[in-house]
Design goal:
binds calcium ion, 7 strands, alpha+beta, three-stranded antiparallel sheet, about 35% strand, elongated, 2 domains, about 15% helix, four-stranded antiparallel sheet
């Protein structure tokens, strides 16, 4: 989501340095925001740059480029930038639990439960880091 101080009336395109943009639209409920959905499922161990170009607002202003940057690291369930024993321990501690709003990061394969396949994915990705 890109938030602006004025109502956005249009933009040229949205793009991502990894993955593909699935949709990009001005929020129908809040014209101060542009919503960009990116499928980055094949991206890992990298910083991803998402940008929107050619923005215009209802005040006659234009902006060439707005961007957001975020790190994508598969199996980093505690979000510290490295996959290690702490992530293994976190998944192991909640194993057999159904996924909920508190433990959803531990459900690495997003199958609705914290389980053995999640543990396997974390182990396979150990020592991976963000750049
Ligand atoms: Ca981690
Ligand atoms: Ca799972």
């Amino acid at each position: 989501m890109f938030n602006f101080g004025t109502n956005v009336t249009g933009f040229n395109e949205a793009n991502s340095s990894c993955g593909s943009v699935m949709s990009a639209t001005i929020d129908p409920d809040n014209a101060h925001s542009v919503l960009v959905t990116v499928d980055a499922s094949d991206c890992d161990q990298e910083t991803i740059l998402v940008y929107v170009s050619g923005l215009q607002d209802d005040q006659g202003n234009s902006l060439d480029l707005a961007s957001v940057r975020y790190g994508k690291l598969i199996a980093d369930v505690n979000a510290d930038g490295v996959v290690n024993f702490a992530d293994v321990g976190a998944v192991r501690a909640d194993r057999t639990q159904a996924t909920n709003q508190n433990n959803f990061r531990l459900d690495v394969n997003a199958d609705g439960g914290v389980n053995t396949p999640d543990l396997a994915i974390v182990r396979q990705n150990r020592r991976h880091t963000l750049p």
